[in-house]
TrEMBL record:
It comes from Lipomyces starkeyi NRRL Y-11557. This is Peptidase C45 hydrolase domain-containing protein. Residues 130-377 form the Peptidase C45 hydrolase domain. InterPro entries: C45_proenzyme-like, Peptidase_C45, Peptidase_C45_hydrolase. The lineage of its organism: Eukaryota, Fungi, Dikarya, Ascomycota, Saccharomycotina. Gene3D superfamilies: 1.10.10.2120, Penicillin V Acylase, Chain A. Transmembrane segments: none annotated. It holds the Pfam family AAT.
């Protein structure tokens, strides 16, 4: 069963309760990520140095979230830099280069199964003619992290600029946020993108995900990140951001050290994204590291187009639309490297241990979501969350 944490109080209180109630899961995350970072060639010293740099940036730009991280560390009885490293795991493993290179790994310009840490995802957004706003994702990651999932239900504290907003996010124990939505009907998804660009003076992706969930709309989230929180991200990634207000709105953000590249919805009100850049123009030095990313993107579009021929989407009930989108996420074409991914025993290293860890479909107009834990085709647990 997913560990559901109801968190309120000061920022430190929220963190301390998180760290206390998820202590064993956080310790498990630290063990798993030690392997993850080592496979990326990062020594413990490299990780600590980067965590120290990011800790300073987080404290400067978002002091309330730095207080929450301190609380998590104290509650879990671990050093602060360990918790910061968890929240900067994308930056450390997908963008950073170790201080002293290991001879057995060629960094950033190969696709070796052992060296490359996996983090694949498939995201879909749809604004329908009747004003509904849907946002959905399969989050693909290491099977070992299944046991470390948490659902955070947070009342933002008085010292937060977002005081009064409530948020719900599926994430890994010890992280500030990942994929979820808030009481203002704003939702966010994450897709890993891989590039060699890194800026420790900007906030890590998972900190920015939390800031999106502390926003009142898509436009508010983009403005806050652009104007108040550094103007970009420490490393390259994709955010699918949507809100269920006034007929719905959604954008794809390819965000990195050089800013936010916005991709608007297509003529059908839809957005699709996997694990490669679609917009271009951000001066990012991208590395394509999941060969199936283009195949999953094409397959998702194919499934949606086939569904259009069978359904009047605007005429579907909420339950029917939810089931329709989950059907996309359950697809096993190109198995095992499909939208609904499972472990690929033909691959070495961490890529062979990668599967869909959870799926989520969000109905932002009604501020609710459905979660399937594990591969949605054969889920281990299903539940609904709502405001």
């Amino acid at each position: 069963m997913v560990n559901i944490l109801h968190l309120a109080g000061t920022s430190y209180d929220i963190g301390f309760k998180h760290g206390t109630l998820a202590r064993s899961q956080i310790h498990s995350c630290l063990v798993n990520y030690a392997t993850y970072f080592a496979n990326a060639g990062m020594s413990p010293g490299d990780v600590e140095d980067l965590a120290s740099a990011f800790s300073s940036t987080i404290q400067k730009l978002t002091p309330h979230l730095h207080d929450e991280l301190r609380g998590i560390a104290d509650g879990a009885n671990v050093p602060l830099f360990d918790i910061v490293a968890l929240n900067a795991r994308s930056e450390i493993a997908l963008a950073a280069k170790p201080a002293s290179s290991r001879p057995d790994i060629e960094y950033h310009d190969d696709v070796d199964d052992v060296a490359i840490p996996p983090d694949g995802c498939t995201t879909f957004a749809e604004t329908t003619a009747d004003g509904a706003q849907w946002l959905a994702q399969n989050w693909d990651w290491q099977t070992s992290q299944l046991a470390n999932l948490v659902l955070l239900e947070i009342d933002t504290p008085a010292e937060s600029p977002a005081h009064g907003i409530k948020l719900k996010t599926m994430t890994e124990a010890g992280l500030l946020a990942k994929i979820g939505f808030n009481s203002e009907k704003v939702g966010v998804c994450l897709n890993a993108l891989r590039a060699t660009d890194l800026d420790t003076d900007k906030l890590p992706l998972h900190v920015l995900l939390r800031l999106v969930l502390e926003s009142e709309s898509v436009a508010d989230a983009r403005r806050r990140i652009s104007e108040d929180f550094g103007g970009g991200a420490a490393c390259f990634g994709h955010f699918g951001v949507a809100d269920g207000k006034e007929g719905g709105h959604a954008e794809s953000w390819e965000i990195g050290p050089y800013g936010i590249g916005v991709i608007e919805r297509d003529q059908h009100g839809r957005l699709y994204h996997t694990n490669h850049a679609l917009k271009g123009g951000l001066r990012i030095h991208e590395v394509i590291w999941l060969e199936d990313t283009t195949e999953r993107l094409a397959r998702l579009k194919e499934l949606v187009e086939a569904s259009d021929k069978k359904n009047d989407v605007a005429g579907l009930s909420v339950e029917q639309q939810k089931d329709r989108i989950f059907a996309f996420l359950k697809d096993e074409d190109n198995y095992p490297n499909s939208i609904c991914r499972t472990n690929d025993v033909s691959r070495r290293g961490l890529l062979g241990e990668m599967q869909t860890v959870f799926s989520i479909v969000m109905d932002l107009k009604d501020a609710k979501a459905w979660v399937a834990v594990g591969r949605p085709k054969h889920s281990l647990e299903e539940f609904e969350v709502a405001f």
